[in-house]
Here is the input.
Amino acid sequence: MRKLTQVLLGVTALSLCISGASAEKLTIATVNNGDMIRMQKLTDDFTAKNPGIELEWVTLEENVLRQRVTTDIATKGGQYDVMTIGTYEVPIWGKQNWLVSLNDLPASYDINDLLPAIRGGLTIDGKLYAAPFYGESSMVMYRKDLMEKAGLKMPAAPTWPFIAKAAEAMTDKKNEIYGVCLRGKAGWGENMAFLTATANSFGAKWFDMDWKPQFNSKPWKQTLTFYLDLMKKSGPPGASSNGFNENLALFQSGKCGMWIDATVAASFVTNPKDSKVADKVGFALAPDNGLGKRGNWLWAWSLAIPAGSKKIESAKKFIAWATSKDYLALVAAKEGWANVPPGTRASLYANPEYAKVPFAKMTLDSIQSADPNNPTVDPVPYVGVQFVAIPEFQGLATAVGQQFAAALAGNISADQALKNAQVLSERTMKKAGYPK
Here is the structure.
């Protein structure tokens, strides 16, 4: 009897080992924003459909995430099987063969349903290297009541001069109401995202066709001077410390007449649980200057597979689930259509239920008006709307952003900030060996 028990225990232990060995663990690195946290809460749907796959999450603040995944992929560390990366990284890493192509996702995924502007930024030589979880552009979010009180009407497609006029008219500093809130915090993804997109509409560019920096050009001086004057007259105090989150808090608390920022913020400013002005918000396209380019950016947080992963097939299954039409329907059923990850699929915007969401059309129009392959008025040798898709940009743009933040804080003049930006850029490009 004892022998039989031992045999049975051995068989049970063996079966448990086999069972444990059969489950493949995917390690997923992602950013700690609301949409990704929601995705983690809904992954029971994925694991139920894929019982042989376990998920391990590494959830990080945006700057830390970028640092970790960049180090891991460059050193072929193999820590992660799925990475959350942005439109900046995909073309650079794809060309380095650091990412696995996703062109063989199943037909049911419907790759042709992805919005062309978003898909284009994730495609190199006809191959998709990341699948978009959500896409965004930028637009004007404004207080309809304050605009009416100022005796003005927001055009669907405003100009920068109108924005300056409206901001001044809506400003009431005694009551802590500021006509416009814009990013001022230094960083390539903070103030430089806004200022680079704005510069495009002023006819400015980072580099000419020979990769020579252009901060000593008239359009850049016009861009920075306009921004600084606008913020001095109509912006909140301490704006050089304000990024996306700080301006979101200001707008939700009723202290901003206008906020020009990410379209993905629309669901936050119209949510009555968080926003005091939820029922007073209107939307418009990002402004232009009559030169054929609007001051809006283009971005997608996307899921990609590093070439060093040993679990490519399982990783593809997860990415196909998380960025599918079915996932959008799952979020809608659980959280409502306004909370569905926006900006990735044409079918979402063709859905009559989603069309009822007040910011749906403006988000789509904003995304479609951005062109990463032709971001500026004049031809340039780079792709990217609010960034330049070269490895050196991340460090360079953060350094330039520090100069512009110092000008906003009143520590240096606009001319000095531009001069410093030109020197920094020339030094960086020379060291990197441009033109290549």
